[in-house]
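call fold(seq) -> tokens
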Amino acid sequence: MYCGERKVKNPIRWGMVGGGKGSSIGYIHRSAALRDNNFKLVAGAFDINPERGEAFGAELHVPKERCYPDYKTMFAEENKREDGIQAVSIATPNSTHFEISKAALEHGLHVYCEKPLCFTSEEAEELLELSKKQNRIFAVSYGYAGYQMILQGREMIHNGDLGDIRLVRMAFAHGGNTQESADQLASQKWRTDPKFAGPSFVLGDLGTHPLYLAEMMIPDFGIKNLMCSKQAFIKTREPLEDNAYVLMNMTNGGVADMWCSAVDCGSVHGLRIRIVGTKASISWWAEHPNQLTFEPHGEPVRILERGTGYLYPEATEDDRIGGGHGEGIFESWSNLYYRFAQAIEKNEAGEENVLEHFWLPNIKDGVFGVKWVEKCVESADKGSVWVDFD
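ret:
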């Protein structure tokens, strides 16, 4: 059980780009990073409007002189300081992720970037190579991966409890954008504009989350080819989609499918994953994150509970509140941020290839997600044909 013990020797000096006043994602980033005293927020370019950003920085107790009008100024000025930021989180619209991430890496900063990482595989590969060249830790914000029962599922699969994996069923389908009026909300409007959202809406915004859970939980998860059908039921969202179905053939001979939607009327959240093996199956639903359903062949169904002694140790080391209490998104994100802090400390202590043997949603996972979205859009635009993944 983790009760806030020190994970790094000294808090990481940390800044933010975006995530200003009224940003729920910005608040989750700050709550997660600051919860365990592994990071210290010392600078920020919080808003496209410098005055609003400075005012909000004051609310966060960030010194006025370290509330910057834009990320370029922040990176340049912080680079001059002996106590300048070591890491930055990027919580801005999709269209800005590439340029801000690239600038951060060029200034020697560790990066925690919202997903999708960028718009194209070429951009994603460029960031990957730059992170290697600069020897910086680059994390991607797949925030649901820090739930304990996801880690339990990962260990069960790695231990062979499910046998060989045959089927993966994934969904992230909610009804939050069932009506066209939802697109007028400031927090939503940019998500359906290709200039800001990129080549997709729900594929990139929603589908990459369960895709990463599958990638994380299943050893050597790979896609041979895929077929995608996408729709815009609200026609003003075209050419982007608000609903999509994806079929995938996996490299291990298994098959996978994905449903992602923002028009699943009545659904509040809808993030689910089910993994079927030759010996047993497991299922997880984000709205009930404390439970993992375990269905061994020929035996009664079992509901595994978070924070209990029968789980694998890897699933309990991140337990913060004991069994029976409801684990939430803040706990999941906090678990990812403390791993980010530990990876930075290992990197700056001279340890090589930290992310090769330290679990954290990283830039390689971000590259995989960008490529998946590209292939889905390619398939759908060609009339829902099968396309090779590699």
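The chain has twelve helices and 14 strands.
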